[in-house]
Each structure stands twice: as C-alpha cells, then as structure tokens.
Amino acid sequence: MANGNTYLLKVGSTGSEEELVGQMDGTMTDASVLVANTNKSTGGAITYIDGAFAQQITFAVTLTMLSDNGQAEMKGKMATGADFSAKIETGIDGESWEGNWKATGRSDTAAMNGDSTMAITIMSNGAPTYTAPTTP
Predict the structure, then answer these.
(1) What are the C-alpha distances in Å from 38 to residues 2, 33, 47, 62, 64?
(2) Tens-digit pLDDT profile for the chain (136 aa)?
(3) Which of 3, 17, 36, 77 sits at a 20 to 30 Å CA gap from 94?
(4) Segment (H or E) for 109
(5) Region class of 133: left (phi > 0), else alpha (psi between -120 and 50), else beta
(6) Burial 30-51 (b: 16+ CB within 10 A, else e)
C-alpha cells in the first residue's frame, strides 16, 4: 500500500524555509515542454533539441491555512504578482520541490469556527530543485 500524500507549503528564503503556511490537498502537474528546433536544415520538420526543455511545475490545490502571518504573506504576494521562495514537500518519503514560485487564481473560504482555506494555483518560476522520494 502506498503512503498517504499531502503537500506542505513552507515559505522563506531558499534553503532555510521556516514558516509552515499550510497543508495542501490537490494535484501536481509537471507542465514541462520540449524545446523545438525548426529551420531550413530540418526541411521545416519539427525536431527537438536533445536534453532541452522548459520546465514548470504546477500545483492546483486547496491550501488549509495554519498560520495567520503566512496567510497574509500569501495574499500580499498574490496581490502584487511577486515571487516567493518556498519548499513544497509531500508525505511520500521526502519528495519535494524547492525554488521560486508564483501563485494565482485565489478563491477564499471562511468557515465559521473552522480553518480558513484558499484554493490557488502555485507555479514554479524557473526550475525548482527536485528531491526524489527515497525507497523505504
């Protein structure tokens, strides 16, 4: 049986993320695309440059806020379109993505006597550092 999965969002400067903003439920998509090389030498046929791709990792999630300060920070970054440094970890044997991110598409819920949640899309801005899960 596979381990359960959740995403944890930790913000702060790369390598020293300290503030746990929240727990995320949702999907991760590797939206990377290959880089094409089309010119006269290929006769107009699309060919791809070996080993070259434009990488983007996207998380479409519902973020359950665990920190009022973190929630205010995320809302501020989204309002201005600013980058934020963060590490997104999974519950699967140490898998993570670390780097610069942007967030869009905010939709808040305000549960009475409950935890605030925010539906957002988080996209990598540049290539994040990926740590593969370890085998138990």
Answers:
(1) 43, 15, 6, 40, 45
(2) 344 567 888 887 666 656 677 788 888 888 788 888 777 777 777 888 888 888 888 888 888 877 777 778 788 888 888 888 888 888 777 889 999 999 888 888 877 777 778 888 899 998 899 998 887 6
(3) 77
(4) strand 96-109
(5) beta
(6) eeeeeeeeeeeeeeeeeeeeee
- Tokens 């934020």 map to which residue? 84
Query: What is the rounded distance in angstroms from the CA atom of residue 133 to the CA atom of residue 136?
Result: 9
H runs (alpha helix) in the chain = 68-80
Amino acid letter for position 51: G
104 contacts 116 by C-beta, under 8 angstroms: no
Going 9 to 12 to 16 to 20, the CA torsion angle's sign is: negative
Label residue 87 exposed, middle or buried (CB < 10 Å: 0-12, 13-18, 19+). Answer: buried
pTM: 0.75
Residue with tokens 């080993």: 51
Distance of CA 89 to the CA centre of its chain: 10
